[in-house]
Design goal:
alpha/beta, Rossmann fold, 2 domains, seven-stranded mixed sheet, five-stranded parallel sheet, 25 helices, 41% helix, globular, disordered C terminus, Malic_enzyme_CS, metal ion binding, NAD binding
């Protein structure tokens, strides 16, 4: 996965700011060095480093390897009594030694992913004020909005931050409004970016926008750390969001902004407002859409359906459902050349009241209105339930984001299979208890002809003596690579064309297309290589469309891949080079990013 202890700079690309070969410069010595997680090696500091950086007397004498440290850390992790305790242990480890933290996860990725991310991270977020030890990340609150520009400057200079993840905590991981605890979802997303795409962890910034909370339990909790007021909406909220965006854009002009877990009524509107102005992304709206569309593309390669004929039914029309619909619409446009308005006519959206109709537009969100059908089309036709819509539309693709368990009934599935040789059915609601159908049932009801992807992990399905892999539509195989492409190209905008380029790279990696399996999506364990391919497509499209601001990007595919890999951070210890304070930039002096040793020293006791 990496080359251990690279001593020499990459001859071709070692001069780049984000190069990962050669030594790291630092002006820190002694305890200041040990307190800075992105430099700290603990017991792995070599004898020469202990001499140079005045570490004798601060560490036990035995010098250990990273592998030995991982073995000890894993034993400590395994001794914790439950997943939340393990999550808290990992947070503590991250605050001490970032290389060890990430290497431990990478060595046990399948086991630890649910602990450092969903579902356990949801527990940690809900208990944030109870388990709080020390602050990590940038806390901006709506009552001090005049301070936003000054507060955000504390994390480095203009060139020190590549990626910002920001949340207002209104709709967290299916557990609702969590107020200031949303800082942990911003942190968790950045961890995924580093694990899956090699984004440098010391060059990222997690942000929470504390706008109050409508969570009564938090409002009544004397330990709650956020603003103990009901959530602010309206003009004051809009101005606060804009102050953050403008301050981030001004102080970190090269940073890519990722919006996360904003409420249904805000997520789409905020994304639409800023997409034409800055390079930004919303995983809830776009990430799910991207990974789902990649699975659809792979399915179409299998069943031969073309984009101009494909009919889609979306069951569930919240931010995820309409986000998927948007990605599908962009793909139809890209692949056929028709207008977005025409492309939208190939998509039927169903929600709790049934098919979305223009006559009910006063009850619909702005995102839903785009897919509302003309009432005249459905005069005299049943449209109040999913089965009626499937009978009329005869879709090639049925996608569920409804959180309505069992909604894809045997009647619905068999009706769909009457009209389509290889129906594409994706029950994407999660967790598992909320899925619209079980994959085994889908195979049974379609005589094994169905093409399936799900929103939660499922074991392989057995049908007629053969095993079929069930791909999980896991956003973690998509958004990190998109972010890597954005960061390395310094694209001015994240356009639909760039997202379609990313989706094509993911679809191309589907095991079912290479006879390496039956899944419509690659496994998360292969995600770093997938991220390289996604980033390559994003960068090439950004260059082609005149959006890339980075200079001297290679044009040859092989050179571009080497250029990308050289800039992907790896969980390996690099040699350290001592420089004088006058030579040290913010990173070298331990002042940049959330892992700043100086900043942490001030907050040892929370």
């Amino acid at each position: 996965m990496s080359s251990h202890g690279k001593q020499q700079k990459n001859k071709r690309f070692g001069h780049l700011t984000l190069s990962t070969s050669g030594p790291q410069e630092t002006s820190l010595t002694g305890n200041a060095l040990l307190r800075t997680p992105y430099f700290n090696k603990g017991s792995a500091f070599t004898k020469e480093e202990r001499d140079t950086f005045k570490l004798h007397g601060l560490l036990p004498a035995n010098i250990q390897t990273l592998d030995e440290q991982v073995k000890r850390a894993y034993a400590q992790y395994s001794s914790r009594p439950n997943n939340l305790a393990k999550n808290i242990f990992m947070t503590s480890l991250k605050e001490q030694n970032e290389v060890l933290y990430y290497r431990l996860i990478l060595d046990h990725l399948t086991e630890m992913f649910p602990v450092i991310y969903t579902p356990t991270e949801g527990e940690a977020i809900a208990d944030y004020s109870k388990i709080f030890r020390r602050p990590e990340g940038c806390f901006l609150n709506i009552e001090d909005s005049d301070r936003v520009a000054d507060d955000i400057k504390q994390w480095g200079n203009a060139e020190d931050i590549d990626l910002i993840v920001v949340s207002d905590g209104q709709q967290i991981l299916g557990i609702g409004d969590q107020g200031v605890g949303a800082i942990l979802i911003s942190i968790a997303k950045l961890v995924i970016y580093t694990l899956c795409a090699g984004i440098h962890p010391a060059r990222t910034l997690p942000v929470v926008l504390d706008c109050g909370t409508d969570n009564k339990e938090l409002l009544n909790d004397e330990l709650y750390l956020g603003i103990r007021k009901e959530r602010v909406y309206g003009e004051k909220y809009e101005k606060f969001i804009d102050k953050f965006v403008q301050a981030a854009r001004k102080h970190y002009p090269r940073a890519y902004i990722h919006f996360e877990d904003f409420g249904l009524n805000n997520a789409r509107r905020i994304l639409d407002k800023y997409t034409p102005e800055i390079a930004c992304f919303n995983d809830d709206v776009q990430g799910t859409g991207c990974v789902t569309l990649a699975a659809v593309m792979a399915a179409f390669k299998v069943n031969g359906i073309t984009w101009d004929e494909a009919r889609f039914v979306m069951f569930g029309s919240g931010s995820a459902g309409t986000g998927i619909a948007d990605q599908i619409k962009d793909a139809i446009t890209q692949n056929t050349g028709i207008s977005k308005e025409e492309a939208g006519r190939q998509i039927w959206c169903v929600d709790k009241p049934g098919l979305l109709l223009q006559g009910k537009k006063n009850q619909l969100t702005s995102a839903q209105i785009r897919y509302a059908r003309d009432d005249k089309e459905w005069e005299g036709k049943e449209h109040g339930d999913l089965l009626s819509v499937v009978k009329e539309v005869k879709p090639h693709v049925l996608i569920g984001t409804s959180t309505k368990p069992g909604a894809f009934t045997e009647d619905v599935v068999r009706e769909m299979a009457k009209h389509v040789d290889r129906p594409v059915i994706f029950p994407l609601s999660n967790p598992t208890k909320l899925h619209e159908a079980k994959p085994q049932d889908l195979y049974n009801w379609t005589d094994g002809k169905v093409l399936v992807a799900t929103g939660s992990p499922f074991p392989p399905v057995k049908y007629n003596g053969k095993d079929y892999d069930i791909s999980e539509c896991n956003n973690s195989v998509t958004f990190p690579g998109i972010g890597l492409g954005a960061v390395l190209s310094r694209t001015r905008l994240m356009t639909p064309a760039l997202l379609v380029a990313a989706i094509q790279a993911l679809a191309f990696a589907a095991p079912v297309l290479s006879d390496s399996g039956t899944g419509l999506l690659p496994d998360v364990e292969d995600v770093r290589e997938i991220s390289v391919q996604i980033a390559k497509n994003v960068i090439k499209k950004a260059v082609e469309d005149g959006l890339a601001q980075e200079k001297d990007i290679p044009t040859n595919d092989a050179d571009l891949e080497e250029w990308i890999r050289e800039q992907m951070w790896e969980a390996e210890y690099r040699p350290l080079k001592l420089v004088g304070e006058h030579e040290a930039n913010a990173h070298a002096s331990g002042k940049a990013g959330t892992a700043s040793g100086q900043r942490k020293a001030k907050f040892e006791h929370g």
